[in-house]
Design brief:
By secondary structure, the protein is an alpha+beta fold. It has helices spanning about 5-10, 55-70, 125-135, 140-159, and strands at about 15-20, 25-30, 45, 45-50, 75-85, 90-105, 115-120. The strands form two sheets. A four-stranded mixed sheet has the order 4-1-6-5, sandwiched between helices. Strands 3-2-7 form a three-stranded antiparallel sheet. The termini are far apart. The relative contact order is 0.24.
């Protein structure tokens, strides 16, 4: 089914989220463009989207990273989770979300203005504090995914 139809009907569907870190351990955040159909102007992870019909999820994640932020890097799957988030405009994200992580230190980032209005790297502590102090500045799924990514990354580094 087409993405917008799935969001209108609140049907569970595949999605992915990409989290990018630099060598300082900072996470790349993007601010969604102001005219996005939901969550405009909110901060979130590097990129999120949906695979096309028949498209491999990892290939889709790499494609959208390039389309939204203008760069590519190797990505690896970290985990999956399911979430449901309802928006004021009547749309619902009910998604089986494949979470990918990658690393990027180059300053050569070229955001697509139709998707991204700003971007920045932040420490995990800055993000944790921002989510607590200014929760309305972040997307609903980022509130759910960030602690999971943080926990999984800490576990991975220890193991």
């Amino acid at each position: 089914m087409e993405k917008m139809e799935a969001h209108r009907k609140a049907v569970l569907h595949r999605a992915f989220s990409v989290f990018i870190f630099n060598s300082k351990g900072e996470m790349l955040l993007q601010q969604r463009a102001g005219d996005k159909y939901h969550s405009p102007g909110l901060w979130t992870n590097a990129c999120c989207s949906h695979p096309r019909p028949g498209e491999d999820t990892l290939a889709a994640a790499c494609r959208r990273l390039r389309e939204e932020l203008g760069f590519t890097t190797s990505l690896e799957k970290l985990f999956d989770f399911t979430y449901r988030s309802e928006f004021d405009n009547g749309l619902t994200e009910f998604e089986f979300d494949h979470v990918f992580v990658g690393y990027y230190d180059d300053e050569d980032i070229h955001p697509n203005a139709a998707e991204v209005s700003d971007y920045r790297y932040c420490s995990l502590e800055e993000i944790k504090e921002g989510l607590a102090v200014h929760p309305d500045n972040y997307t609903s799924w980022f509130h759910l995914a960030f602690p999971l990514v943080r926990e999984k990354m800490a576990t991975t580094r220890k193991g």
